[in-house]
Every structure is written in C-alpha cells, then in structure tokens.
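Can't attach files on this board, so I'm pasting raw text. These are the components:
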Amino acid sequence: MSLHSSSPTEAVALAGLDLAAPKTPAQPVAVRLEGVRRVFGSRAVLDGIDLEVRRGEFVSLLGPSGTGKTTLLRILAGLDRADGGRVEVASARSVVFQEPRLVPAKRVWQNVVLGHVQNRVTRRLATAALEEVGLGRHVDVWPKTLSGGEAQRVALARALAGEPNLLLLDEPFAALDALTRIRMHDLVAQLWRRHLPAVVLVTHDVDEAILMSDRVIVLSGGGIRFDARVPLERPRKRGDAGFAALRARLLAELGVASPEAGGHA
Amino acid sequence: MTVQQPAPTFLASGAGQPPRGVTLDLVDLSPRAGQTPARSRFGKTARFASRALVPALLLAVWQASSNLGFVAPEVLSSPGEIIAAYAELIRTGELQAAIPTSLARALTGLALGATVGLVLGLFAGLWRVGEELFDAPLQMLRTIPFIAMIPLFIIWFGIGEQAKIALILGATIFPVYLNTYSGVRGVDQKLIEAARVFGLSHGRIATRVIIPTALPSILVGLRFAAGVSLLALVAAEQINARSGIGFILINANQNQRTDIIIAGIIVYALLGIAIDLVMRVVERLALPWRPSLVLA
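---
Top answer:
Structure tokens for the assembled complex are below.
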C-alpha cells in the first residue's frame, strides 16, 4: 500500500475501499457480526452492525460518548447480549478493562491464572506471562502494592495467559499517566505482533487509534459511520503528513470541527 | 492606592496580583534543626505518661478515699482489697476453675453462632433465593434485644448449660450474618464481571473472588460477635450458674463481698480484651494483602 503520495482525503478514501479486499484473507475469522442490534429503553444504541475481524487484525473503535462502543465490546466479550442479529466470536477471548480489576486478596500470579487451576504448572505459566509484560519480579506480591501502570500490565498478562484468539481492550490506557500510556502502547503493539490475536480496541484517543491499529472504525448513530484501513507504515510517527491527514479526517467524522483540537477527542 | 502599570503577562488583567515592589507574606515551613528527632525520642514516653495519668490518679483517689474512710468497704472496696480478693480466689482455686468454664461457654456459643451466621450470610449474599428466604426474617429477629429472650430460653432450655450456650449462640448469629451478607454484596461487581470473562464457574467466582474479597468484612463481624459473646456470657451466667465467673459473682453477692464482685467484673473485662487481641491477630494473619493491617 503506497498511498503516501496521494492527497490525504484520497488516501483515506482509498483505504476505505481497501476493506473490500482484506489484507490477510488466509487468517481465520475471530469476530463476525451481522445486523447486531442493542436497544436500551426506546433507543437503539447499536442498530444493524456488520463487522468481520480476522485473527492478527488490530481494529480500533472510535466514537463520541454514548455511541455504543463499550456496549459493542461487551457484546463481543459475552458480558452483554445483543437484542437482534448474529454474533459469532472466537471462544478463546479475553478482555482488558479500563481498570485493572485484579482480585485484591489474590497474589499477582494467582490473578494472572484466575480462570485456571492454580498449581505449579500454572504458576510457571503466570510467571512467563508476567515476564512478557516486564513484571517477572512481581509474581508473588499483592495487587495493592502495584502502581496503576503495573496493575494494568498484570491485567494485560492475565488477558494473554489464556492465549486468546480475540483480545478485547476497553479503553485500557485511559486511566494511565501520559508516560505510562506511551510505554503501554509499545508493549501492547509488541505483544500483539508476537501472539497475533485479533484485537478490538475501544478508545477515545484518535492518535492512539492511528498509532496502533490496522483499521479504524467510527461508530455513530447506532451504525458504523466510517471504516478504513490505516495506510501508514509501522512504526508510525505523529508528525507524518499521512498521520495528520487521517487524524483530521477522523476528527471530522467524530464531529470535532477543528483539527487543532488535538488527538484526545 | 495608585493604579499599577499592567505587568507584561499573559494574563488578561492584573487583578489579584500583588503590587510590584511589595513582598508577599511568606510562612516559614522549612524543618527546624533537631525538631523531628526530639519529638520522636520523647514522644513515646510522654504520650504513654499522659495516657496513664488519669487512670493512675483515679486509682490513687480511690485507694485514698477508702483508706481515709470516705467510702465504706461494703460499698466500694479499695484496689488493695480487690488484689487481696484475687489472691484469695486463686488460693481456693475458684478463679482457675471459673475462667476456663466461662471461656468455654463463650467460645462454644460463639463458634456455633458464628457458623450459623456465616452460612446464612453466605447463602443470602451469594444466592437471591437465600436473600429472599432469610434476610427479612433475620432483620426482624435482629431487633429483639437478646437479653429479653432469657425468660423464654429458661422455659425452652431449662436453667442448665443449654440455656446459656443457646443465649450466646442467638446473640452472636447477627453480627456475623450482617457483616458477611454486606461483605459479599459489597464485592465490586466489576471484579465478578472480570472473573466471568476469564471463564470462572459460579463456584470458583464464589471461592476465588467473592469470599476472599469479603473476608475483611466477615472478620469484622466475627470480632463484633466475639464482643457480643462476652456480653451474652455475663447475662447467661446470671441464670443459676453453678460454675464459672457468674457463680463467683452470685456467691459474692449473697455474702456481700464487694471486693470479689469487683474482681469478677474485672475478669470479664480482661476476657473481653483478650478475645479482641486474639481477633486482631487472626485478622492480621488472614488478611496479609491489606497494607493497612500490615502496617498497623
């Protein structure tokens, strides 16, 4: 995809067309949604969502507050039920929430293998997962002794310990300080490349979405308003012309008029 | 007041800024030499002394007023006489026999009551059916002061050990039930949701997430119940006690031995302190993950 030379809007438009021919058709499908509806009271938060995500694909969900991003993620996680349509998701899936959600009464390694029998074998599994997120020395500590960033890394280790085919990230960086967030971006990108699950990331942060994902989806009015591949080479830089163009386009889709409004929509 | 020249500032107006050339009123908060170590060196003994001062004074006044004949010994025995009463009780072996008897009553009642309270609390906390079945009746029964039940318990269980244990049992159910129930219900729903995502069965969610997280609250209930068990013990031992501290008190009452009565009351108080200390140790051992308790 050498779209850098074309004009910014064109690049995005072309990228949008790119969706018709997925980059990796060989990868198995991890998410398949057809006409998914979710109604709260009389309001359809999700109204006819069609979506297919394949293993190895990193998809970001953007959208103004209340547009059903988190509802969609909860449906994918199996924590919420759709009112209509078809929902098929990989059975091996895990979630990282905005908060770490660690059990305070369990040691870090026990939290990592919360869903498994807890013995020497799973302790080794947990240790390996913790080493991957750089917390190999915190295997036996209590969650309350961890900083916010460390606790979130434990949550990431817990999500990866089950070797998921689908990793759901519900604004996992939102509560972190700016420096920790940058480190977490790198860590998640690195772990994604190593394990290649399908990733669905819900975020408010346009820059984060462009930086990390293969594909950005904007939800609005109960449907998918915008769905495009990110036509930029990795590693991506915020200063690139293509980056700025895509950011401006996404901000426009999100209803933020001025591109100077920054990446934190 | 003269109109100031606007300062070269990015603020729109200079309002709120002090006039130039006038120093602000600064407060010196820098540490003074030798202040902190001195405080920690003398602080401990000084605090202990000031805490001990009033009790020591009261004891002295108490002893003096007895010595000077202001208070008759049959109304209030002097501290010296109470110590002598302990010596007497130990010499006759009454005290050594009474404490284990009374403690056994309290602990038996507590163990039974706490078990019932724990089971009901878990049942009502974990299952909606349990809540619907038990919560309202227990909340109603809770409002009855357990001492009011004594006459009924005597009719039901007689005047022997059974009635005493039953009273302590009845009194200790509620603190454990209430705290277990609210502890289980107070577990963050988000944690339970996360556990569901990671594929934990209902049973495992209960044993790995809910009960360990609710344990601090359960132990608070147990500690309350331990205190209540002693209260109930005192009340229960007024029912025709033939052994235990209550027996010593009833005898002393009949013999007008104020010194022994006060000695017995103090034994109850000491038992209360001992049980509370044990409960604190239990809490500390059972909750190593709570930083506040580790530091306490």
